[in-house]
From TrEMBL:
It is found in: Cytoplasm. This is UspA domain-containing protein. Belongs to the universal stress protein A family. Required for resistance to DNA-damaging agents. It holds the Pfam family Usp. InterPro entries: UspA. The keyword Cytoplasm applies. Residues 4-149, 171-300 form the UspA domain.
Length: 301
């Protein structure tokens, strides 16, 4: 992830105050990036597939105009916040049925280096943070995607790259380096601390005849992971105290570490995979995105 010059900020007009605006204000003020404020209206009044004999088409058109005006007023109010801080800003509005595709198009048209979008609980009966739109963006948006949660950032917090050095694919190797470089660049730009996290879960068979052999095996596994992680970090400038290598289940280990170091952003990678891999890895990624106590930045090679 290189320098940030253009940011696409996807505003949810249904929220009283979208935290994505606070993130964008801070990031843009630190990077001097241009900001593109965007709302897409998926108002069903645009594509009325039903008919009321007692209500003419003018009524639905008027309602559509009122919704459009309301959303544009939200954009103008947000634009004023950025203008007051001398941040170069413009507003974008569309009426596309598919929100994810509308975001991807705007990101491409604006040549954006970063896309910001809020992700939040929909209701008490729907306790997942990640929506179908978010998943489409994770899979298809070529720009770095920051999914913002409804909470304040820690002052002087941390940015954490989650890596997997025990791989055989060159694509994963390039991605890991990109994740660490992204953490370094963002931390420098936003006055945060860059961290690197790796977790492994060794398989211990019941066929081991003695506890001593189990200990030897676990020691050997840790040495292998340590060596691979050291090789990955050799070309980067991460402080040794900001590197976490841990054994155990990924999700609790990761979320605990993020909470301990006041993490503001977790950086993870997304690779193109086949259907089976996507189903398995997607399930793990969904749990991370749901339970992560901070914003999540998704990068691609």
């Amino acid at each position: 992830m290189q320098n940030i010059h253009n940011i696409l900020v996807v505003i949810d007009p249904e929220l009283e105050r979208d935290f994505v605006l606070d993130r964008a204000l801070f990031i843009a003020s630190q990077t001097q990036a241009n900001v593109h404020l965007f709302i897409n209206s998926t108002n069903t009044l645009n594509q009325r597939a039903f008919s009321y004999k007692a209500i003419g088409s003018q009524f639905f058109e008027k309602q559509r105009e009122l919704v459009t005006q309301q959303y544009k007023n939200i954009l103008r109010a947000a634009e004023l916040e950025f203008s007051n801080l001398k941040i170069n800003t413009n507003i974008l509005f569309s009426e596309e049925h598919n929100l994810a595709e509308a975001i991807i198009k705007q990101a491409r048209d604006c040549n954006c280096d970063l896309v910001l979008k809020s992700t939040h609980h929909k209701s008490k009966s729907h306790q997942r943070w990640v929506s179908n739109t978010d998943w489409r963006l994770i899979r298809k948006c070529s720009s770095p995607l920051l999914l913002v949660k409804a909470q304040q950032w820690y002052e002087g917090g941390s940015i954490v790259a989650a890596v997997d050095p025990m791989h055989i694919k060159a694509d994963q190797s390039r991605l890991d380096h990109a994740l660490i470089a992204g953490a370094e660049n963002l931390a420098a730009s936003l006055q945060q601390t860059a961290h690197v996290f790796h977790c492994y879960y060794p398989y211990v068979s019941s066929l081991f005849p003695s506890a001593e052999e189990v200990d030897e095996y676990l020691t050997e596994v840790r040495v292998q992971h340590t060596q691979k992680l050291d090789q990955l970090l050799a070309s980067h400038n991460i402080d040794i105290d900001s590197v976490k290598l841990t054994q155990g289940e990924l999700l609790p280990a990761l979320t605990n570490y993020l909470s301990q170091i006041d993490a503001n952003i977790l950086i993870i990678g997304a690779l193109s995979r086949n259907v089976i891999e996507r189903a398995i890895i997607g399930n793990t990624a969904e749990k991370i995105l749901d339970d992560c106590p901070c914003d999540v930045l998704i990068l691609k090679t």
